[in-house]
Specification:
This protein is α/β, with parallel strands linked by helices and 434 residues long. The chain folds into 3 domains: 93 residues, Rossmann fold (3-Layer(aba) Sandwich); 168 residues, 3-Layer(aba) Sandwich (Rossmann fold); 65 residues, Alpha-Beta Plaits. Helices cover 38% and strands 22% of the residues. The protein is built from 13 helices and 15 strands. The strands form 3 sheets. A 7-stranded mixed β-sheet has the order 6-7-5-8-9-11-10, with helices on both faces. The radius of gyration is 28 Å and the shape is elongated.
Length: 434
Amino acid sequence: MFFDRPESGELAVLVHLELSAVDSPDDPREFEELALSAGADPVAFIFGQRSAPDPKSFVGRGKLEEIQGAVEEHGAELVIFDHSLSPSQERNLERELRCRVLDRTGLILDIFAQRARTHEGKLQVELAQLRHMATRLVRGWTHLERQKGGIGLRGPGETQLETDRRLLRARIDSIEKKLEKVRRQREQGRRARSRAEVATVSLVGYTNAGKSTLFNRLTDADVYVRDQLFATLDPTMRRVELPSVGAMILADTVGFVSHLPHRLVQAFRATLEEAASATLLLHVVDASAENRLHLMEEVQNVLAEIDAGDLPQLVVYNKIDLLEDSEPRIERDDRGVPRAVWLSAASGAGCDLLIEAVAERLGEQMVSGLLVTRPQQSRLRAQLYEINAVQDEHFRDNGDCELQLLLPRSDLQRLLAPYAGGDEGPRWQPEERP
């Protein structure tokens, strides 16, 4: 580590304060689930109320003594706060409690570090950790903050604190360059899918809403599934065939959480860009959660932060098997367009309705019909094959080609535009759709 700190353990005291200055306080149950997901063993849960945090230790003197008593009584080695602590508050608390102190951001970073599997995921977690650690270097090397003088003690003119900062900046720059390469590679993949007119549908939602279970159900994949927060960290993509629409790419993404640290959003921008560039977002919601409206609002906040708030969405109310008298169904708006689907990813009930609703949403701008081309229009035929628009073809005796097509209306208009107004152009016969 960059500085000496008390060793951490698993026996933890959890601290949650209700601050009157906060409009939407965090759920204490979610905080406990976060601690359990990180591998902590909570031995005490301390609650309190304050109008505003104490600038020195976040909590008041009385609450600090209560926390200290719980630490001594249970032999706890770790105190976790359900809040963001400043570096000075963290150090002051550790000095008073004589054990490791962790705030909400550090807790989430630790969970992410445990979940990362791919090289990209590990780089993103390390970047977020280093950015967080950079703010904690102050007062870390208190015994080396000043340069020493005297014969044999004159160094290169750089304090240990400055050395750590320089090494930290160098590592951050190195990781950012590697992640920029990842971003470019992902952008190339997105451009290739765009050229092939393959729609991308991204699963987004609050952590532990059942996104990976639904992903496995729809794709027959074997993505890691666990009833814990942030079980999925690395994105996974699979190709899915939809009736009357064709192929789509389904992407499983990292779950969101209340007050997701901004540095995490920055570090995981390469991953979250998959959601920001999607054709359609499937907003997966835990229908059994009592505060599901609040959780949905938190997801919308993160989507707005990654510039994905205006993308088309289809809400998926999952876990209806935990509700009484709830049947799989599709909810439609005034125009008859699917706006929500109720299902259970665990049992599979209603997943066929989701496929139907997604096909309808993606097929809103799709057209189908018969296009008759002349022999000299072979280039047009080749272009239609390039975008996977041809479903069937048949050649007439005179050399004309009948192409059965299914493609976005905008692509059809673009490809036929050069032939507009000509008598010898291709002839389009649209298919009547119900």
